[in-house]
Amino acid sequence: MATLKKRVHPKKWPGVYYYETENLFRGAPDRCFYITYKQGTRLVWEKVGKLSEGYGPDVAAEIRADRVKAIRHGEEVKTAKEIRQEKEERDKTFGEIAAKYFEVKGPFLKGYVTDKNRYEKHLSPMLDKLRVSEIKPHHVEEIRTKYATYKPATVWNILEMMRRIINYGYKTNRCPALSFQIEMPVKDNERIEHLTTEEAQRFLDTAKMWPARDVGNMLMLAFFTGMRRGEIFKLEDRDVDFELKLIRLRNPKGKKSMSIGLSKVAEDILRDEIKWRDEHHPDSPFIFPGRTGGMRTDCSAVDRFRVAAGLPKGFRPFHGLRHHFAVSLANSGKFSMDIISEMLTHKNADFTKKIYAQFLPETLSVASNVAADILLGNLEK
Fold it and tell me: Is 357 exposed, middle or buried, given 0-12, 13-18 or 19+ CB atoms closer than 10 A?
């Protein structure tokens, strides 16, 4: 040991040692006590504490007796230092968890750059040095206060980023679960994007004639299925069953794999794309591979496509096409919210209804007429 330790009293307090510190306690040098015992073939030295902290040789001897008894009965004994180190491993700082989150999730994280910038600008300065167990409701209130002039959706995104990082830490055993629930602000600016008939026709005409066949096919598949961008990027030959007419979505948005129906139009698009893929990337398992044949992580052509097709400036290809798919189904009056929810692979129909119920014309019209009859009936009584 670096510091020379002296035995207190080998007969009265066996295995108890101490060394004198430079600090004084009650007019004499303070003493720091250690205990030693054998665990298997290993000789363990464990720091107990100082006289000024309330630890004396009698307390140290009791702790040692407990350790020896536990070892004799075959129990695993951990020193205070080991327990502290394990606790620190399971309660890392927010900054450590965030660094690992972006390292692991980076290659597959949609909006990686946006999320990283949001974390570094809004969360890192306030939370990085705190362990998750130290994060309290007042820290969330400080974030809300600091960004009170921001749009509710922006504050929502900041808090959602915080929640996502902590959830990742909890799932990977790097921190305990947050001791309270983060109350998310209400964001009432959900953009429901829907193309007009003319815009939809321009979209399809442009997609069919787009020089990069894989990009055109990719966008048309999104148009006719409502699939998310990441789901299309991950699509492999094994995921398409042309016989059963099913498309298997592996881990859609973090959930368990599920399947959606394969229409005749979508089947033709996929067969054309597989033919193109076999000519350009014959060894790739991905139906829409990236430039090197691996899994695609982006599609930089979509902005040029939007301009070429004359789509609205704010229209977001992929995300907007998913909205268009859902709104078109709801507008037709031929699909229930449950069916639309299944086709969008939402967890439950309540989420689908919250966003798209306003586009059910027949249902809303019937409800309005019933309400009017009730009100008129009340007046006639």
Answer: middle
